[in-house]
Amino acid sequence: MSNLTQQQVLSVHHWTDTLFSFTTTRDPAFRFENGQFAMIGLEVDGKPLLRAYSVVSPNHDETLEFLSIKVQNGPLTSRLQHLTVGDSIVVGRKATGTLLLANLTPGRNLYLFGTGTGLAPFMSLIRDPETFERYEHVVLVHGCRQTDELAYKQQITEEFPANEYFGELLSEKLIYYPTVTREPFRNRGRITDLVRASTLVSDIGLPEISAENDRAMLCGSPAFIADMREILEGLGMREGNSSIPGDYVVEKAFAERA
Ligand code: A2P
Questions:
Q1: Where is the FAD-binding FR-type domain (predicted)?
Q2: Closest ligand 1 atom, CA of 145?
Q3: What is the ipTM of this complex?
């Protein structure tokens, strides 16, 4: 049996000329934990061309959703960006990844820090009631260059709170903090700077981030991950994984996708 399945595209949404998302059918046997990624892609010249994509949709959904950049000369995304309803994509049978609730030690607040499409795994995690059951507050910090790249902003603020399954918990515990670096917006600046200067915690009214109280998940560009790691380690936080839970976890599979 092949380790790949063919799935059909059900919808496509273009957020900007460099960012889009799409939903597909889901193999009933495809199981994943919220926060994980799968290998997905297209058959090119009879061979699968695959990249790691975090699943945006929660594991209780019957369909799958993915968020992608568009790179004009990128081997995969130059093709993927032209997907239309009814097209086939290939999806790996196995999901994996480090951004799991179980990889973190207990804490008071959970910070989800993502840049660009690094938001994707957190979209799945904030629709999981367990995320909220484990923490007093869940702080979703999404950093982008421009406001139109703040994908899912309207869903997070308007649709999700009304969801009958997780809406009440989300309304009570989720603090959504979008920030933009290259144009005016109510929250401005790089996530790293907002954390270092304590602007983030003062804006949301929580105490300084500490190893004692707080846990974090990171997903984004390698430079962002490196800088955030330094900040968190500097606070005495230790990285966790599936063998030893820690104070923060990082998605390493998130490469510069092209
Ligand atoms: P900036 O506009 O200052 O580069 P990209 O689209 O390049 O992946 O960036 C997404 C967001 O991540 C942008 O707001 C960008 O800010 C920010 N960013 C890029 N590198 C870092 C970093 N090393 N630390 C924190 N934020 C970063």
A1: 2-102
A2: 14
A3: 0.98
